[in-house]
Amino acid sequence: MWDSESESVGGRGYGNGVLGSSKHGFKTDGFELRGQSWYVAADIPSDFLVQIGDVHFHLHKYPLLSRSGKINRLIYESRDPDLNKIALDDLPGPEAFELAAKFCYGIAVDLTAGNISGLRCAAEYLEMTEDLEEGNLIFKTEAFLSYVVLSSWRDSILVLKSCEKLSPWAENLQIVRRCSESIAWKACANPKGIKWAYTGNPLKVITAIKVKGMRFELIGASIMHYAAKWLPGLIEDGAGSVDEGSNSSNSSSSSWKGGLHMIVAGTKDDHPSVQAKDQRMIIESLISIIPPQKDSVSCSFLLHLLRIANMLKVAPALVTELEKRVGMQFEQATLADLLIPSYNKSETLFDVDLIQRLLEHFLVQEQTESSSPSRQAFSDQRGINPNAKMRVARLVDSYLTEVSRDRNLSLTKFQVLAEALPESARTCDDGLYRAIDSYLKAHPTLSEHERKRLCRVMDCQKLSIDACMHAAQNERLPLRVVVQVLFSEQVKISNAIANSSLKEAGGTQYQLMIPNRKTLLEGTPQSFQEGWTAAKKDINTLKFELETVKTNDINLLKKKKKKQ
């Protein structure tokens, strides 16, 4: 509504949101709707019919001719002065024409943010210019837009929403651009002042905000909220086509709440219906406007976006760009986020090749940051975890455990993904062992050579005692690997016994570094020396047992060779 006091400038009257013409050439009590037809409540019968779609307006020529250049021209070009019927099917909506017609009759029209854009487009279509009447409809709607709508947060957003149904008129008249820039300026000047909800399309607003220089994390929050509204698949696990990834939506959607919501107010029942053919365009637009800074949007959001992008066959260049963005934040991902189905002709259930590419992008990013001191300093300020590689290693191990159950997953793909990270990324190989064991369960027909090749990705010395105990009894492992595990287990048990003895003897000082065993024995009491001697006996016993196992295994292999 127009909030200023009533004003009159040169015969142009508008005030308090009520729009009227200063020239009343026709006396009427208003308009009446009967079915699909509008009638003017006047003493003079109507002599002119305007048809807009299925709606009919029974009007009078004179009020329309006095203010509409379009209707003047149509009658003139028809060469029929008695023309009493025209069709305006390309006019932007019968509702807007109803208001324009009332203005022509001098009936007061209540201007609001909800009807101003349609009325402005109708005025342009009907050519209601100053040449016909001073203070005509184009002038008055432009004044309302410029001095009322664009000065208000709420009104600018509501007008922007109403423009969705007025394409291309609203774009050609720069209504969308002006509202977007108005919102952008206000958002940049006072981000905390944005306290509304949005059900419209804010992509142009977000683009304008980027140009104005708003903080990237606020822009990212706007993009995520927009996607949650217009692409519900981002919350409902992409396309919802696989059960394995269904938990990802619940685990990540909560992280999108909060922040800046660049959205236009609407009712709860105003849910968008985006066709599949339009989703590709929306996805491509979203990818192109995501700020380049790390953490502008969550890694979970990027992976969900990537899932839909692959499903909709988005342009390869944009998909690659999105993959690089995920690589920048790969340590923030969860297992559920990575379980992306294979939408191409791949035989595997999940897109393992995609995860391989994401991991490569992550490693490239890590290498770039580590080689650039300035960028590393900036990254530290942004809160990057120095143990990012270790987190990614645990994530990859969990992913391998999950996808290894797929019988179509080749040994090569498993091995390449497992060996993609440097050895320093894993301080413990228990997760990798679980993945290997899971793969062996799902692929019981592997040959001895293939099983040995599979186990090469694991370092037995990095297994915990519990993992060693399990592996030592695992019949699916190759015999050579079992022997290595046994040896590693014995070493760990020996170390554990030694450490226990050291701890009991040394008290609070057991963590001190001892240069060698001789110095240790000389500098400790008799009780500790006795404990160490007992530990040595245990070690010798374990070594003897290991040699016995080795001898038995060698004899067994010889017997097998003879039979062959």
TrEMBL record:
Q: Which Pfam families match?
A: BTB, NPH3
The pathway is: Protein modification; protein ubiquitination
Q: Which InterPro entries match?
A: BTB/POZ_dom, NPH3/RPT2-like, NPH3_dom, SKP1/BTB/POZ_sf
The record lists the membrane-crossing segments as none
NPH3 domain residues: 188-492
Sorted alphabetically, which keywords does the UniProt record give? Ubl conjugation pathway
Q: Which residues form the BTB domain?
A: 46-113
Q: Which processes are annotated in GO (biological process)?
A: protein ubiquitination
PANTHER family (alphabetical): OS12G0117600 PROTEIN
Q: What family is this? A: Belongs to the NPH3 family.
The protein's name:
NPH3 domain-containing protein
